[in-house]
């Protein structure tokens, strides 16, 4: 079992309040977040951005392992995750994570690439934890 942790500190009410997020690794250290960073584009982070980063990273690493098991090594894989936050009654809900992958993988054919990308899409731990629609647009570049 592997445990990872982060903590958040919040001061004030929901809209005017402010918080800071710190991760165990220190990559985020007292990173500001609040209503303005979540809904108004102010500098800082927000939970949806962090989920998007986690999903893009997890999926890409999962695909690297899928490729390795199948005897392939990517020259480069670039993944973007767009996480959608929608109104849900009086609150909000993450409803979608749209993954877009562009990969250069020598020697692989389109069918095998599609198979392994789909396996990574459904098999990565972050995909498994998300209670949201997950989509994947995967492009294999020649090279």
Automatic annotation (TrEMBL):
Residues 1-23 are annotated as: Disordered. Gene3D superfamilies: 3.30.300.20. Pfam families: OsmC. InterPro entries: KH_dom-like_a/b (IPR015946), OsmC/Ohr_fam (IPR003718), OsmC/Ohrsf (IPR036102), OsmC_Ohr_Peroxiredoxin (IPR052707), Peroxiredoxin_OsmC (IPR019904). SUPFAM superfamilies: OsmC-like. Signal peptide: none annotated. NCBIfam families: osmo_induc_OsmC. This is Peroxiredoxin OsmC. It comes from Methylobacterium trifolii.
């Amino acid at each position: 079992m592997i445990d990872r942790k982060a903590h958040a500190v919040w001061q004030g009410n929901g809209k005017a309040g402010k918080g800071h997020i710190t991760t165990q690794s220190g990559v985020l250290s007292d990173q500001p977040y609040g209503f303005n960073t979540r809904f108004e584009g102010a500098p800082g982070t927000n939970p949806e951005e962090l989920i998007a980063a986690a999903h893009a990273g997890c999926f890409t690493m999962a695909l690297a392992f899928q490729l390795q098991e199948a005897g392939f090594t990517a020259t480069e894989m670039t993944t973007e995750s767009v996480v959608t936050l929608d109104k849900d009654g009086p609150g909000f809900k993450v409803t979608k994570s749209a993954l877009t992958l562009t990969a250069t993988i020598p020697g692989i054919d389109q069918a095998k690439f599609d198979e392994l990308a789909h396996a990574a899409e459904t098999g990565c731990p972050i995909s498994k934890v998300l209670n949201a629609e997950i989509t994947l647009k995967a492009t294999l570049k020649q090279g």
